[in-house]
Specification:
The protein has helices at residues 4-7, 23-34, 54-62; strands at 11-17, 39-45, 88-91. With 92 residues, the chain is α/β, with parallel strands linked by helices. It has a 3-stranded parallel β-sheet with strand order 2-1-3, with helices on one face. Strand 1, helix 2 and strand 2 form a beta-alpha-beta unit.
Length: 92
Amino acid sequence: MLTPAMSDRVYNLLFLCTGNSARSILAEAVMNREAKGRFRGFSAGSRPTGAPNPFALALLQRERIDIGFARSKSWDEFAGEAATKVDFVFTV
């Protein structure tokens, strides 16, 4: 059974793929829109391409999702003491 403090917790989810240019960025965006504050999505890649895929960005814009967050980044940003703590990791 969940206690009130547990039910108010926001869980951090990290979506990983190789290039962090499309799939993981789409997952991050959809999670942040649909989770309504219950979960917070992040994305990264093992070998980031350096830029989001333009087709992925166009899809997000068609769905009226702000693309200001979107950048291709390394999973190294989620390592170390100062990094955002992640509760769940999904590979896509």
